[in-house]
Amino acid sequence: MINVKLTFPFPDWPILRQTPNGSGTWENYQFFVNQEIEECDYWVVFDQLLQKEQTKCSPENIIFITGEPPTIKTYNNNFLKQFATIITCQRNITHPHVIYSQQGHPWFVGKTYDELQSNLSIQKTKLLSIITSDKLFTDGHKKRYEFAMKLKDYFGDAIDLYGRGIKDFNDKWEVLAPYKYSIAIENLVLEDWLTEKLPDCFLAETFPFYYGCPNVGSYFQSNSFQLIDINDFKSSIKLIEEKIFNSSHYSSCQHSLIDSKNRYLANYSFFALIANTINKLSKSKISKSPRQIQINSEDVYLNNFKNKIKDKLKFLIKT
C-alpha cells in the first residue's frame, strides 16, 4: 500500500465516509487523516493547516489543494512554496507546478460511499427544490439569494426553497433525493470552480439546473444537467419550465444522471481526485529520498509579513 498523510482542516467532518467501508483506503492508497505518522509516501494538505506539522516524506510528493476561489481567499506565495504540486482553480497562483482542476470538495449528502454504490432505490415524489443561504458576503452570494427569491415568487408552491436562515435542514439528502429536479448555483463563475453543489445532485439522482463552472462539460455528460444564467431570469425560467413540465424528461435522462454519479465517485470525488493525481505524478516525476519535512501554517508567513511592515514603518518614523 502507498501511505498518504492527509491534513484536513475540518476535524469533525466525516471525510472517511467517502472511502469504501469508511476504511481510509482508496485503491492501493491508505490515507491517514490528521494523524501523526513517522513517514509517508505522499503528503496532501487541503485548504490550510491549523498548526505546523512534520513527517518524513519526499519533498517532491507534497501536494496542496486549494479550498476556496480567489474572491474568497488568496494564498500566500511563501506558504505555497512549501508544496511541490498545487491543485487549484485559481489562475492567479504563481508556482512551478500547478494543476488546474476541480478540487474534489467533499459531498454534503449524508450518505456513505458504500450506500451510494449500492444502487439505492430513490423515490421521486416531489418536483423542484433550490438550496440557498442568507450568507451574503460576496456579489455571488447576493445574486444567488436574489435569484432564488425570484424563483420562489414565480413558481410558488411548485418549488421548495431551503437554506440556512430560510428553511433549515439536517441532511442535504432530504432536500435533494425526493426531488426530480433541483437548482444548483455556485457563488462564482470560474473555470474548474466546481463545488459539491452539482455532484450532490448527481448522488441523489436529481437533475440539476446549474450555474457556475464554465467547463463543467469536461467533467460530466452535458445531458445530465442544464446550464442556466441567473443574470437572465426570463431565459432561465424558459429552460426550467421546458424540462420540469415535460412528463417524459426525467425518465429519459436517468441513465445520464447515473453515469455522472458514477463518474464523480470514480474520478472526481475527494479521494479519487488525490489518487488519480498521484498516479499521474508517479509516472512523470522521480521521487527523491524521503527526509524530515515541516509544513508551517499560512499564519506564520502572514505574521512575518506584518512584522516586516511594522519594522519598516518604525524605521521610517525614526528617520
TrEMBL record:
Keywords tagged on the record: Glycosyltransferase, Transferase
Domain of life of the organism encoding this protein: Bacteria
Gene Ontology MF term list: fucosyltransferase activity
GO CC annotation: membrane
Domain Fucosyltransferase C-terminal: 124-241
InterPro entries: Glyco_tran_10_C, Glyco_trans_10, GT10-like_C_sf
Family statement: Belongs to the glycosyltransferase 10 family.
Protein name, entry field: Fucosyltransferase C-terminal domain-containing protein
Protein species of origin: Aphanothece hegewaldii CCALA 016
